[in-house]
Design goal:
InterPro entries: Homeodomain-like_sf (IPR009057), WH-like_DNA-bd_sf (IPR036388). This protein is mostly helical. It contains four helices and no strands.
């Protein structure tokens, strides 16, 4: 199975060989939309890399392994709980 990172590498190599976004989309048999190729090329021109930047802001904390374990333990316990 082809990963999107591999396809991005192919797009960048075609771009370096002088191809434009519509030509690259045709070469890839229109499996990747032209706007996606444009976005990848724009990112490559700006940063010199095709990697996605890490998101800024507070990281998510709701689905940590510790919390998942605590919820499973609470649901599996035989302690009777009262609903409000």
């Amino acid at each position: 199975m082809v990963k999107s990172h591999d396809i991005r590498d192919i797009v960048i190599s075609h771009y370096k060989n002088g191809k434009k976004a519509p030509e690259i989309a045709t070469l890839l048999a229109n499996k990747v939309h032209r706007s996606t190729i444009d976005r990848w090329l724009h990112r490559y021109k700006q940063s010199g890399s095709i990697c996605v930047k890490p998101k800024s802001g507070r990281p998510t904390t709701g689905r940590t392994e510790k919390r998942i374990y605590l919820v499973k333990q609470r649901l599996d316990s035989n302690i009777s709980r009262r609903s409000l």
